[in-house]
Amino acid sequence: MSEMDRYDFELPKQLIAQHPRPNRTDARLMLVDRRSGTIEHAHIRDLPEHLIAGDALVLNNSRVIPAKMVGFRTTTRGRWQGLFLSEDPQTGVWEVLAKTRGKLVPGERIMIEDRHGREGMTLECVLKTEQGHWLVKPEQPGSPVDLLQRYGRVPLPPYIRDGQMVDADLEDYQTVFAKRPGSVAAPTAGLHFTEPLLHRLAAAGIGISAVTLHVGIGTFRPIKAESLDDHRMHSEWGELSQPTCDAALAARAAGHRIVAVGSTSVRVLESAALANSGQLAPWQGETDLFIRPGHRFAGCDAILTNFHLPRSSLLVMMSAFTGETLLRQAYQEAIQQEYRFFSYGDAMLIT
């Protein structure tokens, strides 16, 4: 058995959520206690009862941009699909992950169709990178956020309706506290929150603050290496601000917990701590931190997270936090109890 086989499991296809629950807070919530090793069951709406006044809840306020593009090659009319990754602000050139039949060549043009199938933006193919991505230049002026808002589509992961969006995804695949555009995937643990739930948490004495991590394409990819030592994480931009850092440290100083909402918030907090010799401090920059067993958690004391893909870096992260045996038990019970999995699925609170 390879090392990665320990992070694999069989999941009945019907447990992969294709749509969120009509009311976000009706999602189920598994309660996993690391100290006692116990597992209990509740709902997201019960979260104020399972946190403690004085705890610091840390959310990721990154906003998903409609980074998926669909269109055709103007010379052959062959279908083309792309995912925006980044922009060089100096040249206006975009880096995209592209998929089409046949071989693209520099100088070709791609016509992007909007969500209603109408012709809109044209891209000129500039160069294929060593990573197999394409550099393209929009022939229409505007920032990536503005252009993609007009012509892009919600970049759903392939396990949700084969990545095909419906109109409801424009709202469903976005947290209610999303502010800073930049992610190509939603920080999915945050999808469970509503404004009324946030108000109830605040009224219960739970501190609420935000970090930013712009979720990148690596989120979609399982670990292909058979050894964790051979896996290289994608890099993502994140920020822990002074006010959020102060709120987290104040909670700790008063004997309370820092509760990270989602693996993306964990990644920011742990990256910030590692950059400061294991102590939380304001931080901003790129992180390729791979959290795996043996990691000493310094930035958070509890995690609210969804159920993750087999053989994924996110599952490895949760194993590092929870312990392999307890996490495996939790996933087995989730399957037996028919929890809903992945982006639009249910959640667990690990304390």
Number of helices: 8
> How is the biggest beta sheet arranged?
9 strands, mixed
CATH topology of the largest domain: QueA-like
User: Quick one: CATH superfamily of the largest domain?
Assistant: QueA-like
| Number of domains as seen in the coordinates | 2
Which secondary structure elements does this structure contain, and how are they paired or packed?
Elements: E1 28-32, E2 39-43, H1 47-50, E3 56-60, E4 62-64, E5 68-73, E6 79-88, E7 93-100, E8 109-113, E9 119-128, E10 134-138, H2 144-151, H3 169-172, E11 180-183, H4 195-203, E12 207-213, E13 236-240, H5 242-253, E14 258-261, H6 262-274, E15 283-287, E16 302-306, H7 313-322, H8 324-336, E17 347-350
Parallel strand pairs: 1-17, 3-12, 3-14, 4-11, 14-16
Antiparallel strand pairs: 1-2, 5-6, 5-8, 6-7, 7-10, 8-9, 9-10, 12-13, 13-15, 16-17
Helix pairs in contact: 7-8
Structural description of this entry:
The protein is an alpha/beta fold and 351 residues long. The protein has two domains: 3-64 and 170-350, QueA-like (3-Layer(aba) Sandwich); 68-153, QueA-like (Thrombin, subunit H), CATH 2.40.10.240. The protein contains eight helices and 17 strands. The chain has helices spanning 47-50, 144-151, 169-172, 195-203, 242-253, 262-274, 313-322, 324-336, and strands spanning 28-32, 39-43, 56-60, 62-64, 68-73, 79-88, 93-100, 109-113, 119-128, 134-138, 180-183, 207-213, 236-240, 258-261, 283-287, 302-306, 347-350. The strands form three sheets. Strands 2-1-17-16-14-3-12-13-15 form a nine-stranded mixed sheet. A hairpin with a 4-residue loop joins strand 6 (79-88) and strand 7.
